[in-house]
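ok here's YGGT family, seq below lol
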Amino acid sequence: MNSPMYVLVNALINFALIALFLRFMMQFAEVDSRHPYMRAAKRMTGVVDVFARIFPNVGGGRISMAAVVLMLLLYWVNLAADAMILQKSLSALELFFIGTLTAITQFLAMLRYIIIGSVLASWVVMLMNTMHPAIDLIMQLSEPIVAPFRRIVPNLGMLDLSPIAALFGLLLLQKFIEIIGVNILQAM
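and the structure came out like this:
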């Protein structure tokens, strides 16, 4: 759909989703609050602090439930706005289920992109022998995702296969959720 309203609504919601995702991941990766990118993310997503009073952080303060709830709300709003603009009807159950399924699969896809970015950033660091704050941030964001796989994958010295295992694991999880979601949608 090339309607200007459709494009504008989706662009605004996607920008907000990316900002919330970055805020969530920076908090999850325990990025230093004085880091310039963390300060910028906190300023852009100040609404998370307001919602944190209702949905407190869990996991020792690492997991922002407020950011998760806001991302989920934005997916539901996006789906409802798209349906309204395209003049389609969605039941409340369809809106909830499709929006939630989309949010989960997109979240898993973004985690994979972070891992790929981290691998590419490590190559840049190795070839250029320099570290930019953005590269450091990408590598910090991927660490909590890849770390559990490091315990499973054997250490091969200079060759780290844990990002590949993490990518494969996240892709399998995403496909599993999509298959279950499609089967439930067909049953509705």
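fwiw The helical segments are 4-28, 36-44, 47-51, 65-85, 92-128, 133-152, 162-187. kinda neat tbh
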